[in-house]
Design a protein that fits this description.
- It is built from 19 helices and six strands.
- By secondary structure, the protein is an alpha+beta fold.
- Strands 1-2-3-4-5-6 form a six-stranded antiparallel β-sheet, with no helix packed on it.
- A hairpin with a 4-residue loop joins β2 and β3.
- α3 runs antiparallel to α5, α5 packs across α9 and α17 packs antiparallel against α19.
- The longest helix is centred in the middle third of the chain and has 67 residues.
Length: about 625
């Protein structure tokens, strides 16, 4: 039975405080990123604080499910990093409590946050999306002047370009107005200048009523049929007050409101599933209708069905022969007229097919968008759990708290997830990938990573031990480190110099015998290298005896002896006989010729290096024995 313990409360408090802080930080970052999409709708348009507050409120509600995973990742990484850095995690494990037991309270909290994320996407998110889109449209409806920028020409009004030098949003007055009306084209443009004016939408929201003060109207008086090169009369009108009605759709109409409610982002899961059936049925009916129409174009007669293909081919061949004979008996003028009509028919048919293709693609995209939105509700909630099992084990492994390393790792993980998820979304939207593959790509990639980190952290594995990876890398490339023997600060017992001299002399004898028997400068048979056991026990014994002697002499007080000890090379006891210690790896490497050639020459390099190392050991042994003799003679 699950009982709440003091450790659970302690870990939950550490995580909870960090989660609250990181959540607001992540929410702020996401909102700032989202804000750039609508910065032109807000800047310099005199919006009230109430409208701005609603704008940011609905934006925050829509982005909360995206902020949950990143906040969980960052807070879990920092909390367990702090526990590891302060050795509290070590104390917890020393008490016999595993990492999974220490995380159990946070697992429950993370699952609760994932459920909350799903609730936001299912209930609150769709409502916030509808309210957000309606707010953008109502901004145009209530204040049409907010759409008109200052200092540049605005072409959002059909057949007109409007320039406003300055706007007074509190009084609703525009100053320095210049209007180019091009109802008849650029040649017949009317230019209207005004000192100031007001603009407002009509009741039906289809026109703008522009009231101008103290201005002039210039307009060409071209008439239809007039020669282009003829002189064009114009009229000039000076007015103190003038009202102009401009065509302008304020955007607040039932069609766009219906588009908002039909958007997949404005629907819950149950409604998406329900609407998907209707969308698929409608798409099938449209596709069937287009198929019938296309079949009529191919067979030239609506009554011919695919089952009548043989008869259709015969009748088509007969008609083609009859048409060709009739065409040959036509006059040149008649042939040109027939060809022109046929070309127009083909062009109309091609345009019709192109329109149908675009409409079919749009219908298929709508179906895919509904499918992706339904899957996204689960993947985004599931990412909360995945990010926790990435952040908490990483914090336990790295054991670094604060906002340094955890922030860097969190950003890297989130960027990888964002790239995978966004790539899958875009490829699924354009129907290059299936919807399931595209939307589950990020989850499928990060889930094994989360399981791997959790397993390694629970087993106290050194995943990020750079020294370990450095040693493996150096071993693969055949690199090695030098000895670093320094004088001991406290020496209880001096080395046994006489026994060490005997050991060094015995090592010299063993090395000479080994070099005579093994012939290190000869090329060994590849069959023996890759397909037969190749352990070299002789060199392993020589190395063990040498290391024991070096360990004993490392307690010497003489600096010259310590200097000679640092000159001994570190011997690789297996690399000169075969690439790997496991037989199946050697066989696999030898069968694949390119890798076999590489590792064979690598083995030859180690044989040559071992030969040089043994020669160097013999010379160093002689010098060391000589120095020990001198030291013993001086002590007598």
């Amino acid at each position: 039975m699950f009982r709440v313990k003091k450790l659970d409360i302690f870990v939950a408090k550490q995580f909870g405080l960090l989660f609250m802080a990181t959540f607001f930080i992540c929410q702020f970052v996401l909102m700032m990123q989202f804000l750039w999409r609508y910065v032109d709708e807000l800047i310099g348009k005199g919006l009230s604080m109430e409208i701005l507050a609603q704008f940011f409120w609905y934006m925050g509600l829509m982005l909360m499910p995206q902020a949950f995973p990143l906040a969980i990742l960052l807070s879990s990484l920092i909390s367990f990093g702090n526990l590891g850095e302060s050795s509290e995690l070590t104390a917890i494990k020393a008490a016999g409590i595993s990492l999974m037991q220490a995380m159990r309270s946070l697992i429950v909290i993370t699952i609760a946050i994932a459920c909350m994320s799903f609730y936001f996407q299912e209930v609150i998110g769709p409502r916030a999306f509808i309210s957000f889109q309606q707010l953008l449209i109502s901004m145009k409806q209530k204040n049409p002047e907010v759409e008109i920028p200052e200092g540049i020409f605005y072409d959002g009004i059909p057949n007109s370009n409007l320039y406003v030098q300055k706007k007074d949003m509190e009084r609703g007055v525009l100053y320095g107005i210049m209007i180019y009306r091009m109802n008849g084209g650029y040649e017949d443009a009317a230019v209207i200048l005004a000192d100031s004016g007001r603009i407002q939408s009509t009741a039906e929201k289809k026109h703008l009523l522009l009231t101008l003060y103290s201005g002039e109207w210039f307009e060409n008086m071209r008439q239809s049929g007039m020669n282009v090169s003829a002189n064009i009369p114009y009229r000039r009108e000076t007015f103190s007050t003038k009202k102009i009605l401009l065509d302008f759709d304020g955007g607040f109409n039932m069609a766009e409101l219906g588009g908002i409610s039909a958007d997949a982002r404005s629907k819950g899961l149950s409604r998406i599933v329900h609407d998907l059936d209707s969308i698929r049925e409608f798409n099938d009916s449209v596709g069937h209708q287009y198929y019938q129409e296309g079949k009529q174009i191919v067979y030239m007669r609506p009554s011919l069905m695919p089952s009548d293909s043989t008869r259709a081919e015969k009748e088509t061949a007969g008609r083609s022969h009859l048409i060709d004979s009739l065409f040959q008996h036509m006059s040149t003028e008649q042939k040109q007229r027939v060809v022109s009509v046929a070309a127009n028919d083909v062009q109309m048919a091609a345009g019709n097919l192109e329109f149908k293709a675009e409409y079919s693609e749009w219908l298929n995209r709508e179906e895919r968008m509904h499918q992706m939105e339904a899957i996204n509700k689960f993947t985004l909630s599931l990412s909360c759990i995945i990010f926790f099992f990435i952040g908490a084990p990483l914090g336990a492994i790295i054991r670094k708290g604060g906002l340094g390393v955890p922030v860097i790792i969190s950003v890297i993980v989130f960027i990888v997830f964002y790239i995978l998820d966004n790539t899958g979304y875009r490829m699924a939207r354009i129907d290059e990938w299936t919807v399931w593959f595209g939307k589950f790509l990020g989850t499928a990639v990060l889930s094994p990573i989360a399981m791997f980190f959790t397993y390694k952290a629970n087993k106290d594995s050194t995943v990020f031990n750079m020294d370990l990876y450095k040693s493996i890398f150096m071993r693969i490339l055949g690199l090695r480190t030098k000895r670093s023997i320094t004088r001991k600060e406290v020496i209880i017992e001096d080395p046994k110099y006489e026994a060490d001299i005997e050991h060094l002399q015995e090592i010299n004898i063993a090395i000479n015998r080994y070099m005579e028997e093994h012939k290190l400068l000869r090329w060994p048979s590849p069959v023996k290298v890759f397909f037969r056991p190749g352990d070299d026990h002789d060199i392993a014994q020589i190395n063990d005896r040498l290391e024991e002697t070096i360990e004993d002499l490392s307690y010497a007080r003489n600096k010259y002896i310590l200097m000679l000890l640092n000159q001994y090379p570190i011997i690789a006891t297996h690399a000169h006989t075969r690439p790997f210690q496991r037989k199946w790896l050697n066989v696999l490497t030898g069968v694949f010729i390119p890798t076999g050639v590489f590792f064979y020459f690598r083995m030859l390099r180690f044989r040559f290096r071992l030969y040089k190392d043994l020669q160097h050991i013999l010379r160093t042994n002689d010098r060391l024995v000589k120095r020990i003799h001198e030291l013993l003679n001086n002590n007598k």
